[in-house]
Write a structure and sequence with these properties.
CATH superfamily of the largest domain: LpxI C-terminal catalytic domain
Low-confidence stretches: none
Structural class: alpha/beta
Strand order of the largest sheet: 6-13-11-9-7-8
CATH topology of the largest domain: Cytidine Deaminase, domain 2
Radius of gyration: 19 Å
Length: 257
């Protein structure tokens, strides 16, 4: 059986359209309404969560949706979590990708297979080619790819905005929306391109980059003319709504090269 460890946003809901037996809901995490039976959990009691999953005969786990770093109560740690916490805290200090790798290692160490969202819904992955509009700003897109490649080893972010060859914004821990809002405030009407790609060596099992219709509208509000994503490595959250947003705003979207 398969369970989703759900965060917020549309991705868990889209995955629940597939065959999912249970939804793990951590305390304090707000998720979309769903029909799958819930498994309530606390970050401080991972040992209990794994016991509950085994009791439900769950063998595969998918981590999906946005989830911030929680405030933990050490008094509530169960023995399993207390034993793993030094390793998790060390990974947290090395960046998001290191932390996610550590979380996957803990889950798989308990005998569960971690499956990626695109294994459950391969139709959500952007395939090479034009998705809406037509590619434009090829030199800006190429510059964006170069910047992301140079930053890959630093575990900074998955996106960059380039306009007329100038780097206008780099995605950091604050995320895509914050970056696009910054570009809107500091370089309005740039006509630039937003390039979204995974970092080199990124754990796509649990952190594949994604865009949705809100991303399109935020890019339009920032004065951008196009978005380029890497084919096969970026999720399109609600493709029909994305294409409608592109038509509404005039922002082009393509996957490649």
């Amino acid at each position: 059986m398969r369970a989703i460890i759900a965060g917020s946003g549309a991705l868990p809901r889209l995955l629940l359209e597939a065959e999912i037996a249970y939804v793990v809901q951590f305390k304090g995490v707000v998720i979309d309404r769903h029909k799958a039976p819930p498994i309530k959990a606390r970050f401080e009691q991972l040992g209990k969560l794994f016991d509950d999953l085994r009791a439900k005969e769950v063998t595969e786990v998918c981590l999906a949706g946005a989830m911030g770093r929680p405030t933990l109560d050490p008094v509530a740690f169960d023995p399993f979590t207390a034993a793993k916490m030094p390793m998790l805290m060390a990974a947290m200090g090395q960046g998001d990708d290191a932390l996610l790798r550590a979380i996957v290692s803990v889950i798989e160490g308990e005998g569960f297979r971690v499956v990626a969202a695109h294994e459950i819904r391969p139709d959500l992955v952007a395939q090479a080619g034009v998705i809406a509009g037509k590619p434009m700003g090829e030199s800006d897109a190429a510059r964006g790819r170069e910047v992301l490649a140079a930053l890959a080893s630093l575990d900074v972010g998955q996106g960059v905005v380039v306009g007329r060859g100038q780097v206008l914004g780099i995605e950091t821990l604050q995320g895509t929306e914050a970056m696009l809002r910054f570009v809107a405030e500091t370089a309005p009407g740039s006509g630039g391109v937003f390039v979204k790609r995974p970092k080199a060596g990124q754990t796509l099992k649990v952190d594949m980059p994604a865009i949705g219709p809100d991303t399109i509208r935020q890019a339009a509000a920032a004065g951008l003319k196009g978005i380029e994503v890497e084919p096969g490595k970026v999720l399109l959250i609600d493709r029909a709504a994305i294409e409608a947003a592109c038509a509404e705003t005039g922002v082009s979207l393509w996957a490649g090269p």
